[in-house]
Each structure stands twice: as C-alpha cells, then as structure tokens.
Fold each of these.
Amino acid sequence: MGMKNASWRISLAAAGLLAAAPGCKQREERAAAAPAPAVTAESSAAPPSAPAPAAPAPSDAQIAAIVVAANQVDVLAGQLALEKSKNAQVRELADRMVTDHTAVNKAAVELVTRLKVTPEESDLSRALTSGGADKRSELQRLDGDAFDRAYVDNEVAYHEAVIGVLKTQLVPAAQHPELKDTLVGVQPAFDAHLQHARMIQAGLAGAGAAAGEARP
C-alpha cells in the first residue's frame, strides 16, 4: 500500500472535498449576476494581464508530509465512523480505511527514513489537516442514516480526488525512483477503496429510496 494517500489531498482543496464547493458556487452565482464592466477605449487598448504563475511542484520532502497528512485524515474519519455508525457495511469500510491507511503511514515513515528525506510541511499538507478537521466536525453533528450517507459520500469523493492527484501531480513530481515507484504501486489499492465505497454508497441510496416509498 506504499504511500497511497500521498496526493490525497493536494487536491482536497482543488476538488473541494472539504466543503469548499458550496462557497465557490455562491461566488460563481454572484459573479454571473453582476453586470459586465463597461468597455472603454482605455480598457480595450490595455494589454491582457499575465496569467498567474503555476504553483511549483511539491518536493519529495513535501510529498512525504502530504502522504502522512492525507493518510491521517482518513484514519481519523474512519475512527469516527466506527464510534458513530451502527451499519455493518459502513463499519466494515471504516475499519478497512483505518487499517490500510495506518499501514500506509507506517510504510511511508519507514521509506522516507531510509531515503533520508525529512517531511516538510507545505500549504497543501496544512490544508489537508485543517480540511479533515472541518469535515469531521460536520460529520460529528450527524447521526444514524444521515451520518452513514455523509461519511460514505465523503470517502467516495476523497478517493476520487486522491487518485486524480496521485496520477497527475504526485507521481510526476516525485524525484527519487523508489518514491515514484511506491506512489505508482498504491494506485490499485486506491481503486479498490473507491469501488468499495461506491458499492456501499449505492446500497445506502437504494435503502433510502425504498424507505421513502414505504412511507404512507
């Protein structure tokens, strides 16, 4: 399972996993409703502004910190689900997440120690940690079926984002061949996690629909 959560949340922010999406949508709606600025001779003649510089790719040291933060986010979410959920399938998923991501963090620490890479905090790793705490606060306020659906929905979104960032950002950025090989090697495990979460998500949705139809 190597460093699976490595990218996990480089794109937490990018994917809006931790509830950034609603705020973005509201800003988009306000922008769409605002009147377009008038075009003047001065503004039409002005050269276009230069694009913002792309964020630098994370270093191996930063990737190591991202890996640890991302795994810990899912471990803590899984522990919360084991405390609150009574659903056997949800508990099975949560237990798998706690076990697998704890093992990944252990392997990640062993690898970076052997490679003599000291994990370095970055905006991404800090965002992962704070975003995970925000999501757990949201989940903590829920109970029963509402909690189960929200937890599983988050696991689906989380792993979709992780897989995308792993392939497009962390693997290309990794400099040490062993680190790169490890990140590539964990992709099948992430795919399996995502499929497991999607299966439970579909089951919960079906059960909710059936309960709604059964009400008089």
Amino acid sequence: MKQKPILFFFLLFSISAWAQKEKSIAYIEKYKELAMAEMLRSGVPASITLAQGILESQSGESDLAKKSNNHFGIKCKTEWTGAKTYHDDDERGECFRVYPTVEDSYKDHSEFLRTRAHYAFLFQLDPTDYDGWAKGLKKAGYATSSTYPQRLMKVITDYGLQQYSLMAMEMKLMEGRNSATGIAAVSTNKISYLQSSEPLPLQEAALMPVNTEPIHYPTGIFTINQSKVIHAASGTSLLLLATQYDIPLSKLLEYNELTELEVLDKDRLIYLERKLKKGATPVYIVKPGETLYNISQQEGVRLESILLYNTLQKDSLLQPGDKIYLQPINTNHKSVMPSPK
C-alpha cells in the first residue's frame, strides 16, 4: 500500500520534468537565432548564451524575465542608467536591470561580458570550448553557485546547444567569403535572417557561394543533437575508427548511413551512436550545395526520418531557401517540395 504515494510522486515528478523540457525546447527555438546573431556580433558563444538564458530566466518563465525582459539576471551596477526593478537574490531587494525588449537583454548580456576586464580571458578561448567558458564564468564571478558550470554544461549537452555555436561559426566564414568576393549585401541579409523566421529570398540565397572552408569542429568526442560524434579527417580508415571507439564496423556504417566506404573521401562528421529521429529544431533552411545527407549529418537526424517528414527521396534535389522539416509535422502541412517522379 505504501507504494502508491511513491508512484504518484514519481509520476508527478516525471510530468513536471517533461513540462520543463518542453518549455526549454520552446525557449531555444524562439531565441536560437538571436543567440547566434549575438555570437557573430560579440563573440560570446551561442551555446553559452542560450544555456545561461535557460538557467537564469527559467526558460523565460521567471518573474524577472516576464516582467522586465531580463533573461540573464544582470544587476543594475553603478553604470546602469536605464529602468530598474527590485528582487530578492543573494540579498533582499537587489536592483536588476529592466529592458524594453528581450533583444535588448541579449545584447546587454554580450556587452556585459565583452566590456569587463575580468571576463576578457574568456574571449581568448576557442568559441567551441563551452567547458572552459562555463568554468570561466564561475571563476570570474558571474554566479555564486558552486555547481553553476556543471549546470550550464548539462543544459548544453542535454539540448545540443553546441550546434548553434558551430552554425554561427559557419556563418562567420561565409560572411568573410562574401566580403572577399564583393557580395557584401548577402552578408548583411544573412545576419538579418538570423533575427527573423523567414528564409532568405531565393535570388539572394543563390548569390551565396558554397562554403568550402571547413568548420572548426571540436577535437575528440562532442555532441550534435544529443548524439556522440567526432570530426574525422579525409583519409581516415573507418575500421580504425571502429576499433578505436570499440564499435563494430557494421554499426559505425549504419549510424552514419554509409555502405562500403572504407576510407573517408573527405573530412566528415562520424557518429558513434545512432542519430535521433527528431532534430533539436523543427525546420532547417537549405544553403547552397547542400544535400539531404549533409543536413542529416550536420543536424544529427536520421536520414530516413528526414525523408519521411518531407515526403522526399534520397536523391531529391534541394534549392537554397527550401525548408526541410526535422521533426514530425501535422497532416495539414504539405511536403516541402514534390517528390521526384
């Protein structure tokens, strides 16, 4: 008889945890473009910004976030001349900044880190080193909790936030290439796109050169969409990788939807476990030169799932600006584009 209360509380906890996860996913979807735009502008990794936003604002549900648009718990400090509000934190009735919009909160968070000498060392770190950033924020005094770095890193790994730092880095590379080739307008439009939900106009997307420069992925094992992955160089033996990571070669090929490839023909993301069926975000906007397989690997979503969600075939041709669904869509949605005959 005593088991019933235990089961009830366990069920209640599970429902609460699920609801919190849904809120966090919705928060990421809403603000990921803003975090990437801030990374391009200021250098603060998008993964860190999103993780801090989730923790500090309780995924946008805290009173400070809802009433004051303050998503990072930034206090007034002596130089603050804007609106103020007062909340109990480390001490009673502490002064916190009030922002006109959430975008202002994100920008002020970046500037808060970028303009203070005791945070300067963080900007010497690799932007993909979220471990170093998380520990460095604690060291510099951003938060008083002794577990703050671990909590930040857990949010980053649980929700695959590293991918947004990598995406912003890729955009930065493309921006540099556009400037070098004189396509400055595309660079401006690309940054503007980060702050909207609409894809680039097709005529502008078509001007964007295919990004042939490599993304600077972390060394060793990291995660994309909660799946373990490595970035392996061209010429690497898949059998050697399988042996190194104690995975049957057949499984390694299966995880990466490869067949008879023995040696990598180019630098590739190689997953060490099966990719998830759903992406961290619902929709992906196609860039020039991309294939469905490229998107599957880059986003950590099984190719078969992408084909199912979009009613496509493996050899379907993509156009820049196409929307590719990475999560199941309701039956009222139409296919992204017609399936090849």
